[in-house]
Amino acid sequence: xxxxxxxLCAAFLASMYFRSYFGVVGPLVSDDLALSPVEFGWLASxxxxxxxxxxxxxxxxxxxxxxxxxxxxxxxxxxxGSALLGSSSDFLSAFAGQVAIGIGCAPIFMGVLYYLxxxxxxDKAGRLAATVSSIGSVGALISASPLSFFTAEWGWRxxxxxxxxxxxxxxxxxxxxxxxTPSARSALQTTERGAWRLPKLLYLVPICxxxxxxxxxxxxxxxxxxxxxxxxxxxxxxxxxxAVSVFGIATSFALPFALLRWRGRTIVTAIYMVGLLSxxxxxxxxxxxxxxxxxxxxxxxxxxxxHPVAMTEAQALLPIRMRGIGLGAxxxxxxxxxxxxxxxxxxxxxxxxxxxxxxxxxxxxTATALAIALSVYVACRxxxxxxxxxxxxxx
Length: 395
Known about the structure:
about 0% strand, disordered C terminus, 19 helices, mainly alpha, about 400 residues
C-alpha cells in the first residue's frame, strides 16, 4: 500500500504540473511558433477540453476495468503528447500534443479517489486522498519559478521532453504497483426510492462552469501574457505565479478549518464575492501595480478551492445510483469552463486593442461570468434545497 500511495502521489503531482505549466511555457511556445492570439487561446484550452470530455468515459472505464490499466495507458498517451509538444513545429502539432496531455491527465485525480475509495473505508480513503492531494499540489509550484529557471537555461522544448520521460515513468509505476480494485457492479445496486429531476442541480451549473476561471484560465495560461503585456517583458512572471500558487495551496489547507465554523454555502458565497470584487478591480485598473495584479490573480486562483465544497453540495442532491455520473457531469463543466473561457479570451485579445484595454475587457468578462454564477446560486439554491427536502419527506 505504501508503494501504491507513493505512485499515486507522483501521478497527481504530474497532473497538477500539467494543469499549470502552460502559464510559463505557453508564451514561449507562442513566440517560437509565431502563434496568433486566437491560436494561443485554442492551444491553452486544448488540454482542459480533452480533460473535461473524458471525465464521464473515464468513470465508466474504471467501473468496467478497474483503475490500473485505463490510468496507465492514458498516462502513456500523455507522455507522448508532451514529447510531441516539445517537437512541434506548427500550431496543429502543438495542439495535438496539448490534447494528448489532457488525455493523460484526465484519469489521475478521479483514479486516486476511485482506487482509494474501493479499497478502504470512507474515513481512511478520505485521509489518504487528502495526503495525495496535498503532496501533489507541489506540482503547481514546480510549474512556476523552477520551470521558469529550467526554460531559461535549457529551453521550453527540453522541459517538455523531460516531463514526458517522468510521465512515462509514472505510467509504468501505476501499471506495476496498483492492485486490482473490486468490481463496481454491486455498488450500482440500490433500493433507493423517489424520483430525481435534473432541475435540482441546475443552480450549480454556473458555479461549476466558473470555478476554475482563476486557477485554470489565468494561472495556467493568461496570467503570463497579462503580466508581460501590461507591465513589460522584464516582469518576473515565475515569481508572481509561485506566489499565486503558494497562496492557493495555503488557503486550501485553511478550508477544512473554515468548514468547522461556517456552512459550505456560506463559504462558496463569500469566496465568489471576493473573486467578483477582484475581477472588477482588475477590470478597471489592470495596470495599477504589479502588487495589485498579483493579489487579484491570487484571489481568483483561490476560488478553485471551493470545488470540493460545491461537489459535496451536489452529492447531497443526487441519489446514490446516479452520483457517479452526476458528479462526473458537473466536474466536466469545471474543465469545459476553462476551455471555453480561454478561447473567448483569445478572441478578445485578437481585437488588437492596447494591452491595458485588452486585459481590462478580459477581466470584465470574468467579472460578468462570476456575477451571473453567484446570482443564480444565491437566488435558486434555496428552491432546490427545499424541493429536495420535500421529496425526502414524501419518501
